[in-house]
Write a structure and sequence with these properties.
Elements (H helix, E strand, L loop, with lengths): L7 E5 L5 E9 L3 E14 L6 E7 L14 E5 L4 E2 L7 H10 L25
Antiparallel strand pairs: 1-2, 1-6, 2-3, 3-4, 3-5
Length: 123
């Protein structure tokens, strides 16, 4: 694994999940990863083909600023690290799309007449 920061990397965590993310810092003991995500592979029940999903380790919806990155610090002694891997463009693009900036909707003081009103709580 190289010491290049902001390069997409992949490793296995302590419970064997495949994690990808951008390295922000690396020491002998710690690997700091920006926006880590889990790679989940499953079989499609209809056609038997393999489906691939990339899921964020921490959902941005829980953050006050959804465009803010998160950085996680992993103990390298608990990881299985790979040599540098060149990813196909579709895989890297799916990761980048997951953490791209969230567009903000124009603010409106009155709800649109066409938009349904959704009640979150009983009144």
């Amino acid at each position: 694994m190289s010491n290049t920061t902001n390069k997409l990397t992949v490793f296995l965590d302590t419970i064997g999940r495949t994690v990808i993310g951008k390295v922000t810092n690396e020491t002998d003991e710690i690997l700091s990863v920006q926006n880590p995500a889990l790679v989940v592979a499953s079989s499609n029940q209809q056609n038997g083909q393999l489906q691939l999903q990339i899921l964020p380790l921490f959902f941005r919806e829980f953050q006050a600023d959804r465009n803010q990155s998160t950085v996680w610090h992993y103990k390298k002694s608990n990881l299985t690290l790979s040599d540098d891997i060149a990813f196909v463009i579709q895989f890297q693009a799916q990761y980048e799309q997951l953490f791209g900036a969230i567009p903000t909707a124009p603010s409106s003081n009155s709800p649109s007449e066409d938009a349904p009103v959704v009640k979150l709580f009983d009144e």
